Amino acid sequence: GNSVTQMEGPVTLSEEAFLTINCTYTATGYPSLFWYVQYPGEGLQLLLKATKADDKGSNKGFEATYRKETTSFHLEKGSVQVSDSAVYFCALGRGDSNYQLIWGAGTKLIIKP
Amino acid sequence: GAGVSQSPSNKVTEKGKDVELRCDPISGHTALYWYRQSLGQGLEFLIYFQGNSAPDKSGLPSDRFSAERTGGSVSTLTIQRTQQEDSAVYLCASSFSQGHEQYFGPGTRLTVT
Fold first, then answer.
1. CB pairs under 8 A between A and B
2. How far is CA A12 from CA A40, A113, B31, in A?
3. Mutating which of B102, B108, B109 best tests the A interface, going by the most A Cβ atoms within 10 A?
4. Chain A: nearest CA to B5, how far in angstroms?
5. A4, B17, B95, B110 — which has fewest CB within 10 A?
6. pLDDT value of position A36
7. Statement: residue A43 has pLDDT above 90
8. A29 min Cα distance to partner chain B (Å)
9. Rg (alpha carbons) of chain B, rounded to whole number
10. Which residues contact B24 (CB under 8 A, 6 or more apart)?
């Protein structure tokens, strides 16, 4: 079946450090891949997405590349800020319809000044 | 414009009681989704509406859970005879149509005592 696995948190980094949050998936068909972010006290919001292999999604300095050969969609940022502290969720949309998102467990990111 | 709203924001109920959770989607969004987020877990898909119809109810955990949507707008999720394991944050999302970006509400935190 379809599933998403992401690295466990919390991940604690210093400001300006390089960030990688790993996400791998198993899926049938050709799903779209998403990263959502949940800032403290706020609702989930879409951070970036990629709809086909080799696509790169990017937003707010974050990037992730859809790697079909390694079934991965790792989230990266070159220089994190305290304001990036949040919980990050990787998700996939079922290839046949994309309406049912399958979610990873979330990774809490803590950035220290 | 207004985002997705949910009410109540918090609900504490006694085991065995029925509860109703409400979701007001973004105006014009035809697709509506309910998810459940348990502590430390990713999101669990519950049900999806396209208009007033629910093509996929596969995520509802038991027959104590039901949902309806009227007028292509407001949706209610009803949990009958609540159990302690129903305690979670219930999230609603809407999208312009199936497969489009999902916009999330702030959630309803349900605590069953």
1. 53
2. 16, 11, 37
3. B102
4. 10
5. B17
6. 94
7. no
8. 15
9. 13
10. B4, B5, B6, B7, B73, B74, B105
Contacts of B41 in chain A (CB under 8 A): 105-106
Residue A35 Cα distances to A40, A55, B62, B74, angstroms: 16, 14, 29, 27
Taking CB atoms within 8 Å and a gap of at least 24, the contacts of B2-5 are B2/B26, B2/B27, B3/A43, B3/B103, B3/B105, B4/A43, B4/B92, B4/B93, B4/B94, B4/B103, B4/B104, B4/B105, B5/B105, B5/B106
Residue A42 has pLDDT above 60, yes or no: yes
Q: Which residue of A has its CA nearest to B94?
A: A99
Which residue stretches of chain B have pLDDT < 70? 1, 40, 99
